[in-house]
Amino acid sequence: MGSPVNPNNDTRRSAGILLPIHSLPSPCGIGNIGPAALSFIDFLANTGQSYWQILPLGPTSPAFGNSPYMSCSSLAGNPLFISPELLLEQSLLKAAEITEEGFSEYLVDYPLVMKNTSNLLRLAWQRFSSRTTDGELEKFKRKNPWLCDFGLFLSLKNRYQQAPWYAWPKEIRLRNKQALALATAELEDEINYHCFVQYLFFSQWQGLHRYAGEKGIRIIGDLPIYVALDSVDVWVHQEIFELRKTSGRPISVAGVPPDYFSPKGQLWGNPLYRWHARSEQVKKHLYDWWQERFEAIFAMVDIVRIDHFRGFSSYWSIPAREKTAINGAWKKGPGISFFREMENRLGPMAIIAEDLGTITPEVEQLRDDLGYPGMKILLFAFDGNTKNSYLPHNYTHNCVVYTGTHDNDTAVGWYLSQTTQPEARRRAKRQANQDNDDAASFHRDMIYLAYSSVADLAVIPMQDVLGFGNDCRMNTPGTTEGNWRWRCAGGFITDELAAWLHNVTDFFNRLNNHTADSI
Length: 519
Hints:
Helix content: 25-40%
Distance between the termini: 34 Å
Strand content: 5-15%
């Protein structure tokens, strides 16, 4: 299989930008998939980019720190990303009902945004449901059979004061058919509302995806390896997870051992999969569920970055009673047979393997046998080891280089951080052939290294394109407060920035062939 970043098996070099949907400069306090998203696609095309990388699109919750990696559904879209402007065009909202006052263009205020969005979507539902001739929602429900369980899950969450599903009454927790049928009948209106919200999300998203394709921009999506314990996935598919049968609580949970990001490791708390269940029925159920996940995300994006790819080789299993991730153990994952089975079912899959963290030869072998490009993070490169795999002179073509990811500090923030050793700063500057200690230009030094490398694809977080400091960091692993909030105000996306980015992309032969003459 060829590299997903070069699907035609050519040697074309390319570039892209990492910017989550919530960070777009849209009105109403959070980025959305309306006009501002289309404008950003124009920016990408005009600057010669080929890719837009985003974060997971699922619903987020304050219970999980608003993390896109801890969603209540692996298939649903985030209602907060629905564009009020597009609802206005559909006459589902009125202009006077949409306000931009009280919102920051620099940070997401999740409680305020959630309240405002909910109010707008309820108004839209009232108008939509009064249209007796509109059968599009019913068609959407038939095409997406998972919707009924999702709508019921959210409706039951509301009925039981947001308690997790494993704290619900036993007959509901264990999915007694009669109890579910009764609840579905009682909550029909609320279930239909949640289905309507998903209908809006996916209708808008498909418009965005189509526009990106027309502009020559391919979207890189993000697939978390795990799902949240308190999710519709675990409630509906309990037998494929390591759970206690009576209580529904996990036996062991996911995380990673101590590493660069956290001296105590990271205790994620997600339930683990029963990869090695003796029952063939359970194994088939697990693989069918994964197939549905892959089908769903590839219907929305062009390439998928699999988060924590190493978990398919071996995964860190932590007893559920533990308070940190230290006392876990490595367990064997499903390996290459899992991906071969998915390929047999779905055909070749365009995947980027997030192969960061504690990587073993077995993980590298799995990645290489599958032909998936791995990730190279420049901010990991400057420890003084000339054989460091993150140094550009050690790259192979089939990889994606980043200055940093959503879990890193920004490039300028890293350079200015008190935790960064002076020698690491000097090595980073020397690597870029710079004989200065200028922090303000450091992001461009790192872009120079990424773009000049042999990596097929270079992806730069928008914060590093702009040269912002650590007040614009997206996420600090191991923490739950203040993350996933940064927004790119529209005033930062200027003609001067576009001209510079096009120039540097062209200089290093990474221009998108579709848009090479656009500036």
